[in-house]
Amino acid sequence: MADASHPHLDTGRAGIILAGGRSTRFDGIDKATATVGGQPMIHRVAASLDPVVDELVVNCRAEQRDSLAGALLDFDVRFAEDAHPDRGPVFGLRTALRATSAEYAAVLPTDMPLVPSGFISHLFGRLQGGAGIVPRVSETTQPLPAVVHCRAGEVACTDTIRAGDDRLQAVMSALDVTVLDDREVEAHAGTHAFHNVNSFDDLRALAARR
Ligand SMILES: Nc1nc2c(ncn2[C@@H]2O[C@H](COP(=O)(O)OP(=O)(O)OP(=O)(O)O)[C@@H](O)[C@H]2O)c(=O)[nH]1
Ligand SMILES: [Mg+2]
């Protein structure tokens, strides 16, 4: 979302889509381009982020780029390709964070197509100068969607990698993120907003709920 009346004034917000995984539980077919309601899943994720950020950054492997670009023709996207594939989502997140000069970034995985823009906007609003914020859903603290301070997030990724941990949860713990409680989350997002697609069964369940 660029503000045409203030072309040099941005709000310092990036939207990051993590898409560098192998979709092994999806038979190795890139789930980013699987269609939900007639649109590639990554398109839906970009559409959630786009209204509330100044730029979109997609982390992926080099060989995914052409097909993901084809799915994202409606958006102005920067690609942050993994220098080395298959090092896990923490490497992917760090690659994406290094590709932006925004102060804060909303981070979504490519397989979470129902998160409302309003919820992401709420996360930005509730951050209040902190290093990061994530929701608690079904009594579990989720690593994504998250809003993180980009430079702090990059350091937290490096610390996590050095500790030999490959979990995004570890990055969020290192950032000492604020956790939105279930009730506040439910007030700003529907119950199915955080449904994510790992398998064909997940895709069918999501199609049935929409
Ligand atoms: N850059 C990068 N991103 C990854 C990697 N592994 C997972 N991701 C991303 O992290 C997010 C969560 O991962 P998963 O839901 O496990 O997705 P996935 O690894 O593609 O799927 P599975 O192979 O079935 O585990 C997704 O958005 C993935 O694209 C990786 O090795 N490198
Ligand atoms: Mg995986």
From TrEMBL:
Keyword terms: Cytoplasm, GTP-binding, Magnesium, Metal-binding, Molybdenum cofactor biosynthesis, Nucleotide-binding, Nucleotidyltransferase, Transferase
Coiled coil location: none
Cofactor(s) of this protein: Mg(2+)
InterPro entries named among the record's database cross-references: MobA-like_NTP_Trfase, Molybde_CF_guanTrfase, Nucleotide-diphossugar_trans
Reaction equation(s) it catalyzes: Mo-molybdopterin + GTP + H(+) = Mo-molybdopterin guanine dinucleotide + diphosphate
Enzyme category, top tier: transferase
Sequence ranges assigned to domain MobA-like NTP transferase in this UniProt record: 15-173
GO cellular component: cytoplasm
Record GO biological process: Mo-molybdopterin cofactor biosynthetic process
UniProt xrefs under Pfam families: NTP_transf_3
Chain sites annotated for binding Mg(2+): D111
Keyword Transferase: yes
Gene Ontology molecular function: GTP binding; metal ion binding; molybdenum cofactor guanylyltransferase activity
SUPFAM superfamilies linked: Nucleotide-diphospho-sugar transferases
Top-level lineage group: Archaea
Compartments where located: Cytoplasm
Enzyme Commission no: 2.7.7.77
Binding annotation for GTP: L18, A19, G20, K31, N59, D82, D111
Annotated family: Belongs to the MobA family.
Entry domain remark: The N-terminal domain determines nucleotide recognition and specific binding, while the C-terminal domain determines the specific binding to the target protein.
Functional description taken from the UniProt entry: Transfers a GMP moiety from GTP to Mo-molybdopterin (Mo-MPT) cofactor (Moco or molybdenum cofactor) to form Mo-molybdopterin guanine dinucleotide (Mo-MGD) cofactor.
UniProt-recorded name of the protein: Probable molybdenum cofactor guanylyltransferase
Native species: Haloferax massiliensis
